[in-house]
Amino acid sequence: MQAEDLLPSEEGMGLTLCGDLFPEAGPPHWPLDGPLTVRTCRSCQGPFRAELLRDQPMVPRALLQGAGCQYWPGARPLPHWSPRPAVLLGRLDCRAVLLRPELDRLPDALCLQLDGLSPGTAERSGRLFRRTFALRAVREIGAWNSSGGLHVTDRRTGVQPNGRIIADGSPLRIAYEHQGSRRYRCEKSPHDNRTCSNVSLHTRLPAFSATQLELNILQIPSFYNLTLEIVDPREFTVQPVRGRMTPQRARAIGLMVAGGADRVWPSGVLQPWMYRLPISAYDAGSMIPYSFMTVRQPPQLRVDSLFRLFSPGTWAAIGVSTLLVAVLLSRMLNRSSVAESTTTALAMLLGQSLPLGRGRLPARHRPLVAVWVAMSLILTTAFLSDLIKALTVPRSQPPETVSDLVQRNYRLFSDFPSMQRLYSHSARPLVRQLARDMSVVRYDRKELLHTMLRERSAYSTALPAMLETMAEVMIRSQGSVQFEDFAFGREAFGHMLVGRLWSKHHPLLAYRITTVRRLHASGLLSTERFEQQAQHLGRRLKALACARRQASCYTGAVVRPLTVANLHGPLLLYGVGAGLALLVLLLEMLLERVLKRRHRQPEPTEGADISSPQPSGSAE
């Protein structure tokens, strides 16, 4: 006899029949959902019937005559969990049979062990054993005899009335999906390289850690008395499933399909093609938007920002007028020495005081000086006003839609490589255009902060992960970036269904669905909690910065004071100007020395007659 003769099918409702059903009994009318599939044991010598009520304490009602069935499990374990229980009976060692690995994926199994008497004996007896899916031990739950029938003494099922599982530390294998981001970490076990001794989540928000780590996997063993075993799919030889997913997710799901894992973590996005795989996928009843966020740049003066304050025409006019004034000054100050005239011209061009004495500057040249001073005052006032405006008022509003990102040449980035693959298959052309230039950065201290503060950069992922990244940036910037500096896009790239992937027909699936829905109804998984914690973190960082008298304390209506780190542009211009001034000084000294040598008179030689010549007419 084959194992398939007694194991219920995937569509069956958990009835195993050994022998022939009495014709007068008619079809059973038990409260079971779906079709009823009956498996018949071919080598039975008497009728047998058992009733299994799903999701209720199991109460078997059996009528036995004869020796029963001889059952031996199959040659290999089931590829996934069986959806319904199974019943075994016959002259066999039930304790040894129920502990076979071929029955590990049965949610419930009964075994009636008959005595070794011949079928013609008047009084027959047997012992009823049971093993639930989470138990590695077999319990004796009752006895049977031909005169008194079946007496069940232990009616415990694998599930308590409060939903907890009666288990003894059976393993719950979780396939760890490598996200490519360093916020999820898997520490390899020193004893087995294929398993993780510990998993951690680097986060600054308690709500993110509670939803992604504690409630998701770490609290399951305490709820159901299971042993958590996290395996690395990269260390197993499995066939990855096909689909629009990353290679890491394909290997994790492939390991679960092959029977090497019970669920996948931390993946929580469900896609329509996943429902065609031989797995159980359930949604949490919520849709998470995938959007973007930008950061308002802190006040930084760079060379390009200083030059952009004036238009190219204004800079051209300043250059032409400066050259013109320099030429006029050279004509006006030609009577002075070269060094003195050059110093006076430089002082005037730089806007310093110029001696207007009667001997230094004639009265006819004073209108030129007045015009130059007035123009310098106007240009200086305009430049300073634009500079203050650039430091206090943002030059442009942050992008709010996908079209704004494309028109302003923004570039998306994320620390999850799966985001680029996800956006590249979007139905919107603009999202696909952004995905082509999207970059993936490492989740470390310097690169994430540098990329976030870069101009025309937008971070994109799910909304809870964006809030967690916001908290990380606020901490890594030492308070210079506050909660008010972040701007979220009003238009989402898309909405993804949130759920979990489990092994097919896993017994914990129904109870986990109920638990997650209760958590959503309580508000523990809402995004408002993430926003409140991020705002609280921002206020705490601001208070700490004010206690330390840091520059980041001055936010809001108060203009932030400039620091050396934010004055790269002026310092660079000052250095270039000082270098040019030093170069001009050296050239001036060299020019003055050359001119002195040219105007120097040649000295007379010894013995030369220096007497004045006599006129020719006086000689006699």
Automatic annotation (TrEMBL):
<keyword id="KW-0325">Glycoprotein</keyword>
<feature type="transmembrane region" description="Helical">
    <location>
        <begin position="306"/>
        <end position="329"/>
    </location>
</feature>
<keyword id="KW-0812">Transmembrane</keyword>
<feature type="region of interest" description="Disordered">
    <location>
        <begin position="601"/>
        <end position="620"/>
    </location>
</feature>
<keyword id="KW-1003">Cell membrane</keyword>
<keyword id="KW-0472">Membrane</keyword>
<keyword id="KW-0675">Receptor</keyword>
<keyword id="KW-1133">Transmembrane helix</keyword>
<feature type="transmembrane region" description="Helical">
    <location>
        <begin position="571"/>
        <end position="591"/>
    </location>
</feature>
<dbReference type="InterPro" id="IPR052192">
    <property type="entry name" value="Insect_Ionotropic_Sensory_Rcpt"/>
</dbReference>
<protein>
    <submittedName>
        <fullName>Uncharacterized protein</fullName>
    </submittedName>
</protein>
<dbReference type="GO" id="GO:0005886">
    <property type="term" value="C:plasma membrane"/>
</dbReference>
<feature type="compositionally biased region" description="Polar residues">
    <location>
        <begin position="611"/>
        <end position="620"/>
    </location>
</feature>
<feature type="transmembrane region" description="Helical">
    <location>
        <begin position="368"/>
        <end position="388"/>
    </location>
</feature>
